[in-house]
Design a protein that fits this description.
51% helix, 10 helices, 5-stranded mixed sheet, rod-shaped, 5-stranded antiparallel sheet, alpha+beta, Beta-Lactamase, 4 domains
Length: 433
């Protein structure tokens, strides 16, 4: 028997009992002169009326508490009143338990989505119409590294033109922009979406750092170009060089004029130099696989400076290692080559300069090991910043143009970076592990 049938039956019985009692009281008053009996029956009527009202009140009170629990999302209440039907109590408790389970599921899903958004590798941020940030995940915080970042206009603290560049990207589109973050140039792909939360528009920005990917593709393109060029040049130049030397040997023992001999000898010399020139470029294709091992940074820098003491004889070299036990993992021989290339460039930049100084620093920053090579020379002009890592590019008359390109390839082979730092006096390069 369900609750509705029991409720109707109990209500009907109480109303019927009350009616019978009232009719009995009326008959007694009509046919008897004794007052005690009518008074007794009247007391029974009052009691029955009280019980009927209590029956209704218990149900209404329980219903009121149930509705209030729903209105205020208080799903912790339990209904167990003995004055209310057990099935009604069980039904209310079951409904509240389902709401409680549904809310718990939503909270779990919300926590999962919040964790997912915060730790998804793509930097994300949501910006309200007033410029306040409603969402900022960990990769975005790490990418921008702005203390107390909670408003869109604070992007200028990371890069002066970044906020304006982002505002120029229309919702539903993406664009590749250039920015300088942490003193390093970066290629950022910006995607913008417009969403509405509670009727309020917000913009969702995603920023992807494509610098490493673009640099890898650029390096791959250069390697392919070098491979083709050296192959074709060597195939053509080797027999020409051989014939030039043969002709030079034959002409030395003949009576041909000196002009002819000098011309052939010049061809032989230039061919030999050109072969050496091409061989140097082939070094870019012969980078060995790094043999990874722990390296004590302080010892490595001291030994490299000692190795280059003749080159650095006119330059003051300062070492700063913090903490003193700082270590990196890499191929010692290859990392030494990177440091030698950078120190050689610094020494050449300081040549003939009074008070020339090179500072080598090893330190930790945001959980990464940084080795900085800094000098107080003339520095690198803005228009050359994007070219110095291009293979074959050089500003030196006798330079090969492969030192920095090879150094960057070595660092990439270690899953590390070699960057040029701006806003410093002189030139400053960082090896970031």
């Amino acid at each position: 028997m369900n609750f509705r049938i029991r409720f109707r039956l109990l209500l009907s019985l109480q109303i019927l009992g009350l009616m019978i009692t009232v009719m009995t009281a009326a008959m007694v008053l009509a046919y008897t002169s004794y007052l005690a009996v009518p008074v007794l029956i009247l007391g029974v009527v009052v009691l029955q009326a009280y019980l009927l009202l209590r029956f209704f009140d218990a149900g209404m009170t329980t219903l009121e508490h149930f509705v209030s629990a729903l209105a205020y999302a208080d799903f912790t209440q339990r209904f167990s009143s003995a004055e209310v039907d057990e099935e009604l109590n069980a039904t209310f408790n079951e409904i509240l338990e389902r709401f409680r389970d549904a809310r718990a599921d939503k909270e779990v899903q919300a926590a999962y989505l919040d964790t997912l958004v915060k730790h998804v590798p793509v930097p994300l941020m949501a910006v309200a119409a007033d410029g306040s940030l409603t969402l900022l995940n960990h990769p975005m915080r790490k990418l921008l590294d702005i203390p107390g970042f909670n408003r869109f206009e604070q992007l200028s603290h990371a890069d002066a033109g970044l906020s304006e560049a982002l505002q120029r990207v229309a919702p539903g589109s993406s664009r590749l922009i250039q920015a300088r973050l942490h003193g390093r140039p970066m290629e950022l792909r910006v995607s913008v979406s417009e969403i509405r939360l509670g009727g309020r528009p917000e913009r969702l920005y995603t920023l992807e750092n494509l610098s490493d990917e673009l640099n890898d593709r650029e390096a791959s393109a250069w390697r392919n170009l070098i491979r083709v060029m050296t192959h074709e040049i060597m195939n053509t130049l080797t027999p020409v060089t051989s014939l030039a030397h043969t002709a030079d040997s034959l002409l030395k023992s003949s009576d041909v004029g000196n002009d002819v001999k000098e011309a052939v000898a010049t061809i032989a010399r230039r061919s030999t130099r050109l072969l050496g020139f091409v061989e140097r470029y082939r070094e870019l294709m012969k980078l060995p696989q790094p043999h990874i091992e722990p390296i004590h940074v302080g010892s490595m820098l001291s030994e490299v400076v000692s190795l280059m003491r003749e080159t650095l004889s006119d330059t003051r070299v300062e070492l700063q290692i913090d903490p003193p036990a700082l270590q990196v993992h890499g191929d010692r021989t290859l990392i030494d080559q990177v440091l030698i290339n950078l120190l050689t460039n610094a020494a050449e930049a300081l040549e003939g300069r009074v008070g020339g100084q090179i500072r080598l620093r090893g330190y930790l920053e945001q959980g990464r090991v940084i080795i900085a090579v800094e000098d107080n020379g003339p520095g690198i002009s803005d228009d050359l910043e994007t070219q110095i890592f291009i293979p074959f590019f050089t500003t030196k008359r006798e330079g090969s143009g492969i030192g920095l390109a090879l150094s960057r390839q070595i660092m990439r082979a270690h899953a590390a970076e070699l960057t040029l730092n701006r806003h410093t006096a002189g030139a400053s390069f960082s090896l970031i592990f």
